Amino acid sequence: MVDIIEGYETEEQQVDAIKGWWKENGNTLIIGAVVGLVGLWGWRFYNESVLTGQERASQAYSDMLLKFEAQGADKDFENISTFVADNIDNSYGVLASLLLAKEAVTQKDFKLAQTQLVQLQSQNSYAPLNAVINLRLARVQFELGEYEQALITLALISEKNFLAKAYQVKGSIYLKQDKLEKARSAFQDAINASKGRVDPILQLLFDDLALPADASITAPILDAEK
Fold it and tell me: Which pTM was predicted?
């Protein structure tokens, strides 16, 4: 599921993914303890309460998105920040925090984006999102010039579907540091991890490093919204 979540283009699609996961797994994680404590009828009451709470959070998230989009070009982060603070203990709060970080990057507020993503690192309990969080955080750290910290963050990514992107960011960091051999090696690792679906930009970066040493080499522009 991890590759599907990262591929979603809208926050609404991410909401559906989270809801689907909770529907399939959330109840299983707690049903044994709850049934043992309160019995069948107690469990039914508890289950209904949980579902009601999830539906309320879902509706609140949708309402927040509508208000945010209605701001047009003059968007501010007040509504999103309030929602994140009020829903810090549920999955919709995680999605809202991801949205806030993404919009902060769009507005070049990399410090705010970093704050949100670092907070998510410690609070997120939905494992398939960890690679998304770490990849976006590493890109933000790249933009802030925190290259060594970005490399540490990238080292946390082990999911196969994210390795190509992680290696590409790693190569970009080394390229920015003029560590050309390490950059070329990282780009080669990214190509290998792509399994035949190599990003044309990645291939171009790799090919550029194979040119004579006096060729002009510049660091790529990272797409921080992916």
Answer: 0.69
